[in-house]
Amino acid sequence: MESVAATQETPRRGRKRLSIIDCDIHMPTARDEVLSYLPRHYREQIDTFGMRLPTQGAMYLNGAKGGIMQDQSFPQDGKASSLLAYFQTEHLDKYNIEHAILTGLGDYAIQTTPDADYAAALCTAYNNYGIDHYLANDPRIKSSVMIPKQDPLLAAKEIDRVGSHPQIVQVISSNGAEKPYGHRFYYPIYEACVRHNLPFAVHVSMEGIGINNPPTGAGHVNHYIEYRMARTQIMMAHLASMIFEGVFDRFPTLQFVMIEAGMLWIAPYIWRMDQDWKALRSQTPWVKEPPSEYVRKHVKFTSQPIELPPDESLFLPLMKSMFAETNLLFASDYPHWDFDNPFKSFPKMDDGMWDRIFYRNAAELYGLPARRSETEGASA
């Protein structure tokens, strides 16, 4: 979403010409084309009973018009080619996006069913559909491996199956979970991530749905805005779990990406973890460094939705405190209702910081090349 102050900012002409990397995009899918990738018995079950998945939208809603911006009207002809053409015009070309990171094709509800075999079949179907219909037809599009996280061995198998594809750049899971992500239950997933040099990303969604735990420690909430506020506390629990369970000591090359959970809250949370670690470090002796060091070395954050402090003078100090210049990635959350326009969503910052957040941090994380305009200029 854009603040009043932010919408008054005019993008600098030089920046507007520079391409960017958008790290949180939700492409719609052509349902019938996806289902054609499923085994016959699952297709027959879906024809008879529906998708067999608990849903977040039916329980908590998601902003306006089914969670989509009101001015976005994706084609309804059931063809992936039409969806792709619309996406290319309305987002990639419009905002000069050089690399677009899809944060999972398919509904995160796949990760809420107790039937792990069915979840694995759906993940395979969505991953194959994305490779065939989107990645093969536009090199700007990169994607994330959808995994059946409720069964880490099956999840690792899916990562091994598609993780070496050159346009697959990370593994993704929902924020809603049965256990905090530092738990050893998930180690097979991290072993597979390391084998393929893929970051492990967690995207807010599915908190309290299906097999996942309630969205707050006090239980379920009634309204979407409460649900939305509760997501940050769950992401906090995952981050502390990853550090204090020793995941980054066991997997020293693993990168952890936190998507759509906000960003400025991270600064005081880091301070709190460092402060308490000094007094309690004897209980977790395998944690060798202050938590802030693990965050600086292993954790990336996406920008949307941005918390803008009423006192704008607080913005840059908080950005510095959360290592934004090296660890923050721009994300628009297209086409969702709280979309962040890359030209208007941030307060003013210097060109170096802007360049890191809108391109270089993501390029380094995902192993993407420098801007075409820069390499073409160098070779001219």
Automatic annotation (TrEMBL):
<dbReference type="GO" id="GO:0016831">
    <property type="term" value="F:carboxy-lyase activity"/>
</dbReference>
<dbReference type="GO" id="GO:0016787">
    <property type="term" value="F:hydrolase activity"/>
</dbReference>
<feature type="domain" description="Amidohydrolase-related">
    <location>
        <begin position="21"/>
        <end position="368"/>
    </location>
</feature>
<dbReference type="GO" id="GO:0005737">
    <property type="term" value="C:cytoplasm"/>
</dbReference>
<keyword id="KW-0378">Hydrolase</keyword>
<dbReference type="GO" id="GO:0019748">
    <property type="term" value="P:secondary metabolic process"/>
</dbReference>
<protein>
    <submittedName>
        <fullName>Amidohydrolase</fullName>
    </submittedName>
</protein>
<dbReference type="InterPro" id="IPR006680">
    <property type="entry name" value="Amidohydro-rel"/>
</dbReference>
<dbReference type="InterPro" id="IPR032466">
    <property type="entry name" value="Metal_Hydrolase"/>
</dbReference>
<dbReference type="Pfam" id="PF04909">
    <property type="entry name" value="Amidohydro_2"/>
</dbReference>
<dbReference type="InterPro" id="IPR032465">
    <property type="entry name" value="ACMSD"/>
</dbReference>
<keyword id="KW-0456">Lyase</keyword>
